[in-house]
Design brief:
- The chain has four helices and no strands.
- It has 94 residues and is mostly helical.
């Protein structure tokens, strides 16, 4: 929704766009803080933390939208994808 063409399609006001930019800036800071801790010892935990940040972004933006804007946004993005973390490595199949 930070892209002008999407904001226009959803019908965001300038105020909503500014608030969304602030939410995304804060989320980027949270992600940066995670990565500044160094390589994760537990990739699963890192993935879960990234998911929490994404959920927080979605919740914050949802609070800003009218019901009509939420409906339009859903039309644009379609059905959500479900991602699963699968660790790399492990025994090889022969």
């Amino acid at each position: 929704m930070a892209r002008p063409e999407i904001a226009k399609q959803v019908g965001l006001t300038e105020g909503q766009q500014q608030q969304i930019r602030e939410i995304l800036r804060e989320a980027n800071e949270k992600r940066r803080a995670l990565f500044q801790q160094g390589p994760p010892a537990d990739r699963q935990a890192m993935f879960q933390e990234m998911q929490k940040i994404r959920q927080w972004v979605d919740e914050q933006i949802s609070k800003l939208l009218t019901e009509q804007q939420k409906k339009k946004w859903q039309e644009l993005i379609g059905e959500p994808l479900k991602l699963e973390f699968r660790p790399f490595g492990g025994p090889r199949r022969q």
